[in-house]
Task: structure prediction
Amino acid sequence: MKRKIIYTILALLCLQSVHGQSVEIKLNLELGKVYTQNSYSKASISQDVNGQKVNIEMIMKGKMSYLVKAVTEKDYLMDVEYNSLSMTMQRPQGSATFSSEKKDKNDIFSTLLGEMVNKPFKVTMTKSGEITEVKNISNLIEDVLSHFSQIPESQLAQIKEQFLKSFGEDAFKGSMETITAIYPKKLVETGDSWEIKTKLETGMSANMISTYTLTESNANGYVIKGNSSIETANKDAYLPINGMPTRYDLTGVMKSEITVDKTSGWVIEAKINQEIQGDVYIKKNPKLPDGLKVPMVMKNTLVYKNQ
Result:
């Protein structure tokens, strides 16, 4: 009986030791290796424009590759490129689908997406997943648009504005850090939590505060769950949107579940749900002499996989 009690105590001590093992979770990428990422995003936007409900649904898919060109003590320099891009929009006026795979010169937006793929730009990312620099995306977009001299200059300017909001340096940094700026800057055990602050730039500036928790360590990797609060920054600042001074007053939440590889730290899979609501204000201008307040609700589901 005594021997059984001793064995039981030893077993419990072993279990406690395994459960309490501290680990360092960070990026550990290899020089010269290519890391991939497939993304799927489904967004629904509900607006109330002068008492009329306007619903928009947008699905975006993309494949990207990250080639590690240099490794320092603190970060990685990578050549990043889009391998494919597609977008489907459902609006009250009808639906439309655009894809970099299309070879139709009459489909200008698909042709623009096609010009964006397989053209690298520079990204510097720390080992804790923060993006400190993005270079050459604006130059890439300028080069892409220079091939479309047949488009009227005013329309080309609007397309450039939309492309920069969707694919520019700030937009890329904000969307990418949603799944990469998640790593703790300390050793953690299962059940430990840590806080990360991120700035999002997707047509509007927003501050995001996230609490991440290491919930599981399994054969697939480390499972990290996050709860985030989102609030627009500079709520009183008007910015030109489609030629009209516009400001946002929005708040929201985000829930995420992210699995990272135990060896490389690269995100294997991520599932993210966002819900943001509030008001958009358009200042008085020649197009809208009385200005406009637009209540809005946005819901977004994002899925990332490394293959």
About this structure: Residues 25-305 form a domain with the Lipovitellin-phosvitin complex; beta-sheet shell regions fold (CATH 2.30.230). The longest helix spans residues 2-19.
